[in-house]
Write a structure and sequence with these properties.
Length: about 210
C-alpha cells in the first residue's frame, strides 16, 4: 500500500525538518533555505492557523516534498490532502485516523511510543512509524527495546533530537531518518525577516549526517 512511498520519502535525507510556521511570510524563505541546504522533505505541522496555506506555498519550491504533521483525525487528514500534502505525519495512531489514511492511499507516518501502537499500525498494513516523543520516551535505548520484536518496522524518531544526538539514532539500522527542528532556531526569525543563510547552513549540517 503506502509502504514503498513513505519508505522512499524517509530515505530522501537523514533529517526531516519539523516546521512550525507562525507567519505566512516565512513559508517560502524557510522552504527555500532548507531545500538549498539539502533537506527536501518538509513536515509542516498543523499547529498554526496559516499551516495549510504554508503547505500550498512551500510546494512551489523546486525539489521540495511537502507534507503535513500534527494530523490528529480524519478531518485534519482531509484538509491536509486538500492543501496538497504529499505525505502525512501524526503524533499518535488511532483506528479512525489510520483507516482514513490507508483509504486515502497517501504516504503515512503515524506516531508510536510503544509496542501496542506498532501492532495497531501493522494491523492496518503499515510498517513505517514515527517514534515520538523520542527523548521523553526513553531515547535510543527505549527504541531498540520496542523495535526488537518487529523486524519489518522502520522508524523516524522525533522529539527532543538535536544535531549532536541524531547520529546515535541514525546508527540504529531500523532508523531511516530522524525528525527535528534544531535547524530552525528562534534566533533565525526577526519579525518578518528570516535568516535564510543560518537555516541553510544548519540544514547542510543535518543533510551531511549519515543515515
Amino acid at each position: 500500500m503506502t509502504a514503498p512511498a513513505i519508505d522512499a520519502i524517509m530515505r530522501t535525507a537523514p533529517v526531516i525538518p519539523v516546521i512550525v510556521i507562525e507567519d505566512i511570510e516565512h513559508a517560502l524563505p524557510v522552504a527555500e533555505a532548507l531545500v538549498a541546504g539539502g533537506l527536501k522533505v518538509l513536515e509542516v505541522t498543523l499547529r498554526t492557523p496559516c499551516a495549510l496555506d504554508a503547505i500550498k506555498l512551500m510546494k512551489q519550491v523546486p525539489g521540495a516534498i511537502v507534507g503535513a504533521g500534527t494530523v490528529l483525525n480524519p478531518r485534519d487528514l482531509a484538509a491536509a490532502i486538500d492543501a496538497g500534502s504529499e505525505f502525512i505525519v501524526s503524533p499518535g495512531l488511532t483506528p479512525a485516523l489510520g483507516e482514513a489514511a490507508v483509504k486515502a492511499d497517501i504516504p503515512f507516518l503515524p506516531g508510536t511510543a510503544n509496542a501496542a501502537d506498532i501492532m495497531l499500525g501493522m494491523d492496518l498494513g503499515l510498517s513505517r512509524f514515527k517514534f515520538f516523543p523520542a527523548e521523553a520516551s526513553g531515547g535510543i535505548a527505549a527504541l531498540k527495546a520496542i523495535a526488537a520484536p518487529f523486524g519489518s518496522a522502520r522508524f523516524c524518531p522525533t522529539g527532543g533530537i538535536t544535531l549532536a544526538t541524531a547520529p546515535t539514532y541514525l546508527a540504529f539500522d531500523p532508523v531511516l531518518c530522524v525528525g527535528g527542528s534544531w535547524m530552525l532556531p528562534k534566533s533565525a526569525f526577526d519579525g518578518s525577516k528570516v535568516d535564510t543563510a543560518a537555516i541553510e547552513a544548519a540544514a547542510a549540517q543535518a543533510a551531511a549526517l549519515k543515515a
